[in-house]
Design brief:
Blueprint lengths: L13 H8 L6 H6 L4 H30 L3 H5 L2 H20 L9 H7 L1
Helix pairs in contact: 1-3, 1-5, 3-5, 3-6
Length: 114
């Protein structure tokens, strides 16, 4: 697991910004406000990529539920999947507050691209 790169400037609000980075659309706040703190920027980008992946997942999930016979049975898994996504956000916040990064295969690669 790669360690965080050294940040040029450490924000005094780093903890708050890392938590905001994983609260879906609120990830835009640290992305736009803390431009000098590279660690906060990474977490904000990671949070945005995670949010977009969740939106895409839910769109596909809902299409599958409504298109297949007995889709209501598949639809019962929705709350369980939502809890898994919530757990990923909580783990990412905790790791971020401890100075680490949650690396999600394939998804984290997109966060590093922009």
């Amino acid at each position: 697991m790669p360690e965080p790169s050294p940040a040029g400037t450490v924000s005094s609000n780093r903890s708050v910004m890392i938590v905001l980075a994983y609260l879906w659309i609120l990830a835009l706040v640290p992305l736009l406000v803390e431009k000098d703190d590279q660690e906060v920027q990474w977490h904000a980008k990671h949070g945005i990529v995670l949010m977009v992946a969740e939106i895409v997942f839910w769109i596909v999930f809902n299409i599958v539920v409504y298109m297949i016979p007995f889709g209501c049975v598949v639809g019962l898994m929705g709350p369980l999947v939502a809890l898994v996504f919530l757990g990923v956000h909580i783990v990412a916040m905790i790791k971020g507050l401890n100075g680490q990064r949650l690396i999600i295969p394939r998804l984290s690669e997109y966060a590093s691209r922009f």
